[in-house]
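A quick aside before the break. I want you to see a complete sequence-to-structure record at least once, exactly as it would be stored in a machine-readable document. Don't worry about memorizing anything.
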Amino acid sequence: MASYLRDVRCHAVMSRDEEHDIAVRFAATGDQRLADRLVNANLRLVLKIAFEYRLSRRDVTDLIQEGNLGLVHAVQKFDPHRGVKLATYATWWIRAYMLKFMLANARLVKVGTTRAQRKLFFSLRRARMHLEGKSASDVGADQLAASLAVSEGEVVDMERRLAAPDASLDAPAHLGDDRNLMECIDAGGELAESQLVRSELQEKVCRELEAFGRRLRGRDDLIFRQRLFCDEPTTLASLAADFNVSRERVRQIELRLKERLRVHLVRKLGDAVAEAA
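That is the input. The structure line, written in tokens, reads:
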């Protein structure tokens, strides 16, 4: 941190005219060297804002890092022809990046993902203190909801989230046995390992289907590609008309092909695909 502060002090603050001139040139040319000069000249602003939030984060370097990203974004979006100083415009983006980072990392589990929830996260405690100071009594969720222009249910939900501590997945489940919380959570879907195995098997089957098809000729090849190895199979009647044979004959050829394919897949991939084939 001390090294970073020394580096920041090496970059001089620009005058209003110099900043405007460089910003105009950057807007016209997109020269990244000009953007770098604008960013470096405003690094002190990021430090100032980060230290305002130092009580919310023990490691202020995280906030500086996020604030610098906000500053870079502000420089890219800045319009020098609106008569506003870059520092004034950048302050909004710097704070936005810092607050978003604080919200995302305040708890192990995110407590605010929508715009309304983010508003509640940052404003709920301050609104409660303000209203309790005015009324000298406890403030209900309905009053907080009206003050913040959100629903009462959202206030209740956010207060419940903020009041509940994070629970370790290694903590005992208290179900009368030695299991922890992790062991009691239903994954709710196929395990990643099973998905990977299934995906790899599907790829191997597709390769072997193509290899099997390359060995076929004549009617066998047409029936395989138009009945077995396609998204919309051709009807038996249509193929029978093309070959000038009965539908039953086409069906027999198809059954013979299926048996040959099953034998091929089992020989190449093992019994795991026998049933599917």
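Two observations worth writing down. DSSP finds 14 helices and no strands in the chain. Residues 259 and 277 are 8 Å apart (CA to CA). We'll return to this after the break.
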